[in-house]
Input
Amino acid sequence: MSAIDDPGRVEPVARASVRRALRRNPASLAGGIVVAVVAIVAVVGPALVGDPNAGALSNRLQPPSAAHPFGTDPLGRDVLTRLVHGARITLAVAVAITLVRLVIGFVVGLVAGLFGGLVDEALMRVVDFLLAFPGIVLALVIAGVLGPSLRNVLLALAVVGWGSYARVVRSSVLSVREEPFVDAAKLAGISRVRLVWTHFVPNVAGPVVVLATLDLGGVVLAAAGLSFLGLGAQPPTPEWGAMVADGADYLRSAPWLVNVPGIAIAALVVGFNLLGDGLRDALDTDPTEVNR
Amino acid sequence: MYRYLLKRFASSVVVLGAVSLVTYALVTVAPGDPAETILREQLHSQPSDEQVAQFRAEHGLDEPFHVQYVSWLGDAVTGDLGQSYFHGRTVHELIAAHLPATIELAVAATVVAVAISVPAGIASAVYRRTPLDYVSQAGALFGVSVPNFWLGYLLILVIAVPFSAVPTSGAGSVTQLVLPAVTLGTGLAAVITRLLRASLLETLEEPYVRTARSKGLRERVVICRHALRSALIPVVTVVGLQFAYVLNGAVIVEVVFDRPGLGSLLVDAVFARDFPVVQGVVMVTAVLFVVTNLLVDLSYRYLDPRIDLEASA
Amino acid sequence: MSRRQLISGVAGAGIASIAGCLSARDTADETVRISLGSEPTEGDWEAYGGVVPYHTPFHETLTAAPPDLQTVEPQLASDWEAFDETTWRFSLQDDVTFHDGSELTASLAADALSAILEARPIGFTRLTPDSFRAVDEYELEIETTQPEPATPGNLAHPLMSLQHPEADEPVGTGPYVAEGVTPDQPVEAVRFDEYRETVPEPSLVFEGVSDPQTRSLRLESGETDVALDLPRGSYEELAANDDLEVRTETEPRTGMVMVNRYREATSDRDLRKALQYGVDQQELVAEVLDGVGEPARSPFSKRIPWSAHDELSAHTDTDRAREYLEASAYDGEELRFIIDGNQSEQQLIAQEMQRRYDELGIDVAIEQVESAAFFSEYTGGEADLAFVELGSINGAADYLVFVMYHSEGGDNADQYESEGTGVVNPGEEVDELIERGDTAFDEDVKHEAYREVQRRVMDDGVTIPIYYKEYVIGTGADVDGPELHAIPHMTDWTTLTT
Output
């Protein structure tokens, strides 16, 4: 019964194996580095590069040079500076969306798994629907109808994307419920809530982390896509998807305006995907299995 | 089996009802008065109060929510999705006019995807842990990671501009399909390549494949005749299920390439607050999706009788 | 059905549809393709046979505005006079036939115009379906609900086009005949052989291409012969291309920022003046608009005959802006600046203005609002600053002044009626000036009244004019013309030859 009193039991093991696996798998290591670099840039970068809106019209649409490594935009602003500030926004939005998805999915999965029966049936039908229905279409309608803003994009993408978390959490709950120690714990008079926290949370942490990492890549793409369509960030916010959309007017004369943020988005998504694949192998858990 | 079908049918109806209610409720809480907006667009000047009132009455916009919804639903069931505020055409006509371009795009993107992914997936599995495998896997990774809107512009820059034979936009001819299909197809190809590789690796470990090998059959024969056949089963299913992916992608790809498909119809309608069209497109999407899912489920049963549909319902 | 059959069936259908498209492709040589900013059939245009009268050369109006907009010229009507304050007599030409062969008479014209107004009330006129009466074979009497000196000019508006009242297809009197109209498809215009004047041989195909960048790329790759409203960003690129001719023309249309006179912060005239003087129109046009457009001094483009552009001075002076700001009661609160989400150039200008205001010490937050909600936010008084682009596509621009600055005009009426305020209406004196101009049959009186309105409005600081719009039209090497018109919707396509 000592396991019940030691909720962190799984964690150290997992952490060590993650380290080992990442060391063995250079691709995931590279992914981790990309994500780490973007994260560091997002945290400390804005303080180092200065005002993303500074610039002079006389300096507009300059091609990449030593002074402006990624050129300048139609208002003479430095694209690198905007990219750095955009990293914070892009990453923060993606993490926020993923967290909201995770929280909704966690609650729904828990409720479905614990209560079972009709509640479970109803919730899982909703999940089925969300998983198979084209999410961007739904998010586009929600965000579009509410009016363009980053907050509405966040809301829309969170609302359509929690299905896979709910499934993973639910299946974890179900598998924990079958374990013999659950009956033992019940006999020992331990409450259901406490049981969930001590056994179930460590159990579900691995799959959920893997799922969230893989999901982050998709979320970055979806949020940038909606911003590209004009639903997200408001000017002069340098969100990466909006930067691509703004640059499209100058596709021929200043292709760097589209290419720089485009490559940045692709690199970040590659990073999340590599890291997610690596974590999945390392933790030997495939949350996507439940979602097929 | 009949019980299963009945159950599936009932749950499909519930799903469609829920989708219709949610979209209908959503557009009624939207800011901005569609009547005024549309009249302004048509008249090129500020409409008078009488004109706005007349428009609202004509389009039933002054009824309470439940009355509007019930009357819309009643019509929708018979295939009448109402009248676009803006186009002067029925939603039904608009969707019928825009659907072909999206279907063309979906078919072409799938062709591109299969053409890339099947060889890549096989090569990747057969030459596992060789440079070829790494290249193919890296390609797949980029395929899922590159944003469609940027890839589209990149293709315009490096292909359409230097080679005038490839048009940049529009729909109607095969050449106009090339760039959108490639843009959308690469993402799809990536998904299939990964799946095919995993599935093929699994099959290559199956006893019967090992037996075939031990009988001294040539590797090519083993792979083509034995392994590939069963490895393709999950792949084919996934291709069938990529409907959602294609529609997601169509929204952006059709905007980049200015293709008059369902995706760009929806984007335009959302921005123009042409709510009957928004509702119509979402409903048609939901119906397509429910039907595809049902067909896929049924084909599972047909192909793999071990699956117990009663239980999975 | 096996899976394999299913897949081959799907593939077959795909190939068939692709093949179907191939054969549908346009192969005729003698056509000129014209790319417009919107579909020539998009919208509710039943009353015109299903085509947008703004974009197609199938219909004509009683009067016409010449390319420089300085007068009103005859078109289907050869002459007109004001009979009394609310009655006009128009004499029609006697040699006009509709595309279906019927002859244009006054009674047919009366029916046609009634049908147009029956289908859709037209806000800027004082005409109703009952306004039109044939008094003779070619003599049309037009009765307005109130005195309206602008009637001849208003009748040049494309919405006042004559469509045969019995026809479902586009049947007008214009130089081209519509060759079948399918919604959301390009429209082919073929020469009308019985037209009063000679019409050049080539047929015209009007297509809608919504994205300006795409129109530009299509022109460059030769997919289209003429492209309207090209993006300013690619102007230089296109101009440098020897195979293309790129021209610009100033429209009677102004891009300007409206400053709400009745919001807490901006009700302070000193702050409004600071906002006004803080903007550098010259630089904005030269840089952000790539020199395409003209720095504006008045809310009414200098193409409009009564524009006060020449007598107003440029309002760019950072020092004065500082002085005004110091004199004002502004205490650093954030001003809400709304822009129409579809206008990327306005978005850039707004950001540059925001930067300059920031240097002055005025805090401005930009918010993109979708076109659909933009005007209700603006007229609802929900923004301190609003970027609007307004202009006339009419022979008379009188309605613009009324809509913009009269307390009961469309932009201000909501707030005026509910709150007793408005948005940018400076008040009673300006209302009276507008009414005087609006009812003046004497051009000099009208012009003076409207010029005084502009002086007052600028002095009050409710408007920051930014640019007079120039549109960019590109044509391929094997096309000559067309002659440019200040209003692109009024382009005479018969001046286009190959």
Summary: Confidence is low (pLDDT under 50) at residues 1-28 of chain C.
